[in-house]
Amino acid sequence: MKYRITFLTMILCLFTLPATAAPAKSGGVYEITVENIDCGGDPTPGYSGGTYEHVFSFCEPGGITKLTAGTYELFSGYFGQDLTPPVKINDLDVTLNKYQGALNLSWSAPGDDLTQHQLLGNTKFYIATTTVLTDAQNIGYWYGRRNAGDCEVIITTANVNYSDGCYNTMLDLFESATYFIRIWTLDQAANWSEVSNGATIQYFWSPAAVTSLNARQGIYGRYVTLNWSAPGDDGWNRQLINGSQYAVQRSTWAEVFFSTDSVDTVRFSTSSVNSGDYQAYNLTSLIPGVTYYVRLWTADEWGNWSDISNSTNAWATITLLAVSLDPHSVDFSNVDTDYSTHTPVGVENTGNVIQTYTIRSGDSVDWTLASSQGEDAFRLRAAFHDDEPLIADYDANDNVLTTSDKTASSTVLTIDGSHVGSGVDPFTDDTRTVWFQISTPLSVSNGNEQTITVIVTAQESP
User: Fold this and answer.
1) Which of 16, 120, 193, 377 has CA 20 to 30 A from 389's CA?
2) According to the CATH classification, is domain 214-315 in 1.20.120.520?
3) Tens digits of residue pLDDT in 88-111
4) By C-alpha distance, which of 425, 436, 448, 288 is closest to 360?
5) Domains of the chain, residue spans
């Protein structure tokens, strides 16, 4: 058995080495072959039953050594001073834990002496990082970081064998920064390994995956309403700031492949949202009565997307087109021929979709609807307006009713476009006022009472 020594201290007895065991110096370290050790003379303190204990003292821990009479193989540890460093770590690796805001490091342990022997108590790993590329490319920079005051992480370890797996998790990092990482080993005799290979990674911490996404029928037709609790910018921590966004994908097929880049995915921005805040969004323009399956993602201001949310589904609300008039009938009482007057009627959207109104008129028993007055011929015009207009305000073409539907717009069935019969939202108490203006015939064949039916129809706005 060969042991390297630089000095040897006798504690309990003298011994002699045979001539064949003369030290041979190699690189400042002596190697000696222990063949026969003669502890002659009277037994010295520590002798018990042919066993000498603590024969040698060591400069690095190695356990208790024993020399048993007649047996010379029960030495443990290293004799003398340890001058051999651990081998350089060459497999340092880093992976991203984007949901905990961490970097996971892993490497294989070196030996205490290059690749030999176990790393004993008080061995330390030193880990340093930089986010500056020019520093990372300068080996001198790394050796300048090799001390307790200039590295980020110091790990004390013991009883680690060569090639054992080692791990560490780094926290409190800078968002969207590229990290360059190196590691050294310092053994218990203060021997430094060489600086390791470099490990590089871009760090980011995504928002947490939403787990409370809920879908239900919306109050509007063709709607599905979503609600959920907001995640944080980093996992469940920190506020979602300007530049953050959500992505929602909906599909009528439960087994569809869900992706933030799907053609069925809509994205919308958000900001100043705290973790746990109530969030809501309406999916619109859906097929009424059809079930939609929905997933959601969150991205922070750096574009780091969360994992996919829980799955939810609901069927799109059936559309309802409905309109209410107040009053339902108008009595002009006795009027003369060639007479003009007008009266207001309130029109309310009582359906569940945004509506545009159409209006048409019919003939009476004795009178005919026409674009201009004549014998037994009357003209009826209509226009949406908040206040009572003048008779002269009615446009001759855009507001003249016929027996065919005339569709309201910003220029049709309106006085000046400030009050129109299109784009009327339900559930808002938004009653629109339409004025009906009648010009009686220039002459009539009889004086019978006439009833004119006007039909207002609601249609879904585009």
Assistant:
1) 377
2) no
3) 999 999 998 866 778 999 999 999
4) 436
5) 1-83, 93-202, 214-315, 323-460
Q: Are 233 and 301 in contact (CB under 8 A)?
A: yes
Residue with tokens 């599905």: 224
The Cβ-side half-sphere exposure at 198, using a 13 Å CA radius, reads: 17
Percent share of the chain, pLDDT over 70: 82
Instruction: Quote the tokens at residue 397.
Output: 């073409």
- In this structure, are residues 163 and 106 in contact, taking their beta carbons and an 8 Å threshold? no
Check the CA dihedral 60-120-86-4 and report its sign. positive
Q: Topology of 93-202 in CATH?
A: Immunoglobulin-like (2.60.40)
Give Cβ neighbours of residue 203 (< 8 Å, ≥ 6 apart). Answer: 96, 103, 173, 174, 175, 176, 177, 178, 179
Q: pTM of the full predicted structure?
A: 0.60
**Which CATH fold topology does 323-460 show?**
Immunoglobulin-like (2.60.40)
Residue 295 identity: R
Whether 323-460 and 214-315 are alike in CATH topology: the answer is yes
Q: How far is the CA of 20 from the CAs of 27, 35, 181, 361, in angstroms?
A: 21, 9, 50, 129
Q: What is the DSSP string of 391-436?
A: GGGS-TTTTB--SS-EE--SSSSBSSSSS-SSSBPTTS--PEEEEE
